Fold this protein.
Amino acid sequence: MYKLMTMESGLKYIEITNDSACGKIAIQGAHLFHFARNGEEPILWLSETSDMEHGKHIRGGVPICWPSFGMSNPELPQHGFARNRMWDLVNIIEVDVGTTQVIMELNDSKKSRREWEYKFNLQITITISDELKMELKTTNLDTKTFKFTQALHTYFNISEISNISISGLENKPFLETLTNSNQVQNGEVLFNSEVDSVYQEVDSEIVLKDKNRDIKINNEGSSSVVVWNPWIEKGKRMSGMCDEAYKEFVCIESANAFDDAKFLEPMESHTLKVTIS
Ligand code: TA6
């Protein structure tokens, strides 16, 4: 079943319930801000103090960072413009009693071409089932080649930051952005201070290990993964997040960032896909 809902603030979203899971997707940003298997704790984290209104980005869920990750294109806002735009709903498909697919797209407009000159089609397919799948397809509709970077900036809900570890990134090179140094991951990723790292050459399953559950993350069309937790001081400065919120989430972002930036010729497409189970 699905319903189009409107919050008091006017923010519109699609609520999906089926025999496997529940999901909520804002039309602004095609932003999935809730996903939980039936009877289980949510897999995605959503800040209790997040802005939930037009023009402001949601703190939690899966922001779509596109066509630039971070400040990689200084002419665009941080993480690009897609997360703050109104997307078009293309289709909702009830595949079976436990699987619902939502397809949304964003096309270039006069406004987007003022910020980023290219013609494009960006389509996301979100599959709500006992696993969560997101496929983000970029098509170059322009006559010139374009370069882009992107991320599905997933906020995972965790029991407590000191309880978690991340496997699958062992021995991978990464850019530690806090000191701007190139390093190699030694063992699993653990958290006892701020982390903001861009891993490269990632080619295997990533597992977020928590006290009572493991979450598996499988990426396709991507070899870069960003791991982020703001910790105490940065957490206090972040919008839409309370002082203690850093304990409740970790971001593991399926990306095409830095050396993994993509170039598309006219009419070429690229798909970034993540399966979370
Ligand atoms: O992906 C990590 C990161 O780029 C951090 O540096 C961090 O500040 C963050 O994303 C959140 O960015 P936002 O623009 O959503 O506040």
Remarks:
- The chain has one domain: 2-276.
- The pocket of 6-O-phosphono-beta-D-tagatofuranose is lined by residues 70, 78-79, 153, 196, 226, 228, 238, 251, 253 (CB under 6 Å).
- The longest strand covers residues 88-96.
